[in-house]
Every structure is written in structure tokens, then in C-alpha cells.
Amino acid sequence: MHPVIVSFRDDATPDQIETAKQLAAQNGKIGHEYTIIKGFSATLTEENYVKELESLPGVQAVEADGVVTTC
Predict the structure, then answer these.
(1) How far apart are CA 68 and CA 55, in angstroms?
(2) For 20, what's the count of Cα atoms within 13 Å in the CB-facing half-sphere?
(3) Hey, what domains does the chain have and what are their CATH numbers?
(4) pLDDT single digits (tens) 12-36
(5) Which of 13, 39, 42, 70 is 20 to 30 A from 7, alpha carbon to alpha carbon?
């Protein structure tokens, strides 16, 4: 499994976002939908879906999701 955060460009359309969400849902599971940024978390079944998501119009980045801590 590959946990990721998908973020979108500011000018991404609702249709572009929906297309990315559908791809993620078909090939894994959508976790949280973010409101502060245009984006969502997902757990993908295969790493090659990361590249497929990255290639979609409107997608800014697909990054590995992980735990962030501060000192």
C-alpha cells in the first residue's frame, strides 16, 4: 500500500479534482479531504498509480504521506 497526499493547483477545476478522486478510489481508498488546501489523502494499491495521478491535469503534486513531528 502506498499512502499519498494529492494536492491540486489553485486553478484546478472541480471536474479535474473529481477525475483524480475517481482514479484514487478505483485503485485504493480515499482518506481525508482537505479544506485548507485543494487536496486529499489516499492509500493506493500500486505505486504506478502515483505516476498516473501526477499526470492528470490540475494535479500539482502527489507526495508520500507520513508522520510529521516537531522537536
Answers:
(1) 26
(2) 29
(3) 2-58 (3.30.70)
(4) 999 999 999 999 999 999 999 998 9
(5) 70
Tell me the backbone φ, ψ of residue 27, rounded to 5 degrees.
Answer: -120, 25
User: How many alpha carbons lie under 13 Å from residue 59 in its C-beta half-sphere?
Assistant: 21
> What is the longest distance spanned by two Cα atoms in the chain?
40
Q: Which three cell numbers stand for residue 39?
A: 487536496
Cell numbers standing for residue 25? 478510489
Quick one: 71 exposed, middle or buried, by C-beta within 10 A (0-12, 13-18, 19+)? Answer: exposed
pTM for the whole structure: 0.89
